Amino acid sequence: MSSLAGGDVQAFGAELPAMFDGVKLAAIATVLYVIVRCLNLKSPTAAPQVAFQDTALSRFLLKSCPMLSKEYIPPLLWGKSGHLQTVLYGKMGRVQTPTPRGIRKFLPMQDGATATFDLFEALGEHGTGDDVTMVICPGIGNHSEKRYIRTFVDYSQRQGYRCAVLNHLGALPDVELTSPRMFTYGCTWEFAAMVNDVKQAFPHTRLVVVGFSLGGNIACKFLGESRRNQERVLCCISVCQGYSALRAQETFLQWDQCRRFYNFVLAGNMKRLILSHRSTLLNSNSSSIGAADLSGLYAATSLVQVDDSVMRKFHGYGSVKEYYEKESCVRYMHRITVPLLLLNSSDDPLIHPSLLSIPRSLSEKMPNVMFALTQHGGHLGFFEGAVLLPQPLTWMDKVIVEYTDAICLWEKSQRDGSCFQPSTGHTH
């Protein structure tokens, strides 16, 4: 057998530290590469892409809403990752979350259900001197106590807006169902009841309709269902919705951008919420849910399976395809005539890019529609900040109020006969 000479052993031993240093450097370089890729650090910041028709209103809105034409700058270290924006919103909510004080109202429905919403009075006079109420529809399974809702409500109150926030049927942990039915993807009954109650309680108020995620679908569907629903409505803002559940369901089963994982998590949340009300949903002569449906729910690993087992049956749909077709706002949005702002983010891991052709097409066909697409922001994230810590208020909070302020000024100018001189250029 051959053996290393003493000098060779010493030379090889001397090379070991250098080899280990090389391995460590390669490992560090690999980790840094993965971090840069995962955090999307090389992605440039940019102003939102805004699609609209060239009208006097759209020119005025762009002049009056500088946030729609300025760079949106997320936190440097993590804010360019749509996943982290989404996860931090979901787990952390917001930082330094305020606790607005409101009054909870209970509205009996014709089918025995009890809708609830929280009413928050304005904390100051609105800039136009008008009485304006934001009627807000939260995201899936959400309610007025969620942190992102509390942050937005507090900011809106301080800008002179009264706020009414729907609590999705079955979403509040301390409020029991009074009928064997929960909220669904596109049921507008509870939202309509809240809007009508606000109109009756405040006969001189004007309304601003705001919907987040699933709430955006309900808000837009509500407005498009009837011209009467648009009476006294100044405008509508929809944030991070997918517009068509039928088109979204296929993309939500794909692993691209981890959508299948998000689907699994959301399905788990819905299962827990439904099962927390199992006694009311099952033990009733009028219940549409049976033991076999419950078995299907236990086995469900995706939202479409949850919807097929339980959710579609609350309103008697024969198939999940019919449920998605008839409950999606894409069937109704062409009937909306009030100013409509549709906000989405390019890196929203829940919304496939193909779905964004819907709002873009609407903005090209309808003069009242403006579609703003940010480069970053995730799903209902839109955090802002310098390096690490985000600011309490997000870009989303501020741009909704800025757009609404501009609409209020425009409406006041129309009533008073004022004449604005907006800039002549526009950005696509």
Automatic annotation (TrEMBL):
E.C. number: 3.1.1.23, 3.1.1.6, 3.1.1.79
Keyword Lyase belongs to the record: no
Key word RNA-binding present: no
GO biological process: one example: sperm capacitation
Family matches, as InterPro entries: AB_hydrolase_1, AB_hydrolase_4_CS, AB_hydrolase_4_sf, AB_hydrolase_fold, ABHD4
Catalytic residue list: S213, D348, H379
Keywords, ordered alphabetically: Cell membrane, Glycoprotein, Hydrolase, Lipid degradation, Lipid metabolism, Membrane, Serine esterase, Signal-anchor, Transmembrane, Transmembrane helix
A molecular function (GO) term: acetylesterase activity
Reaction catalysed by this enzyme: 2-(5Z,8Z,11Z,14Z-eicosatetraenoyl)-glycerol + H2O = glycerol + (5Z,8Z,11Z,14Z)-eicosatetraenoate + H(+); an acetyl ester + H2O = an aliphatic alcohol + acetate + H(+); Hydrolyzes glycerol monoesters of long-chain fatty acids; a butanoate ester + H2O = an aliphatic alcohol + butanoate + H(+)
Origin: domain of life: Eukaryota
GO CC entries: sperm flagellum; sperm plasma membrane
Predominant location: membrane
Transmembrane spans: none
SUPFAM superfamilies: alpha/beta-Hydrolases
Main EC class the enzyme belongs to: hydrolase
Location of the AB hydrolase-1 domain: 133-386
Membrane topology: Single-pass type II membrane protein
Protein location: Cell membrane
Family from the record: Belongs to the AB hydrolase superfamily. AB hydrolase 4 family.
Functional note: Progesterone-dependent acylglycerol lipase that catalyzes hydrolysis of endocannabinoid arachidonoylglycerol (AG) from cell membrane. Acts as a progesterone receptor: progesterone-binding activates the acylglycerol lipase activity, mediating degradation of 1-arachidonoylglycerol (1AG) and 2-arachidonoylglycerol (2AG) to glycerol and arachidonic acid (AA). Also displays an ester hydrolase activity against acetyl ester, butanoate ester and hexadecanoate ester.
Record PANTHER family: ABHYDROLASE DOMAIN-CONTAINING PROTEIN, MONOACYLGLYCEROL LIPASE ABHD2
Name of the featured protein: Monoacylglycerol lipase ABHD2
Lineage, highest ranks first: Eukaryota, Metazoa, Chordata, Craniata, Vertebrata
Gene: abhd2b
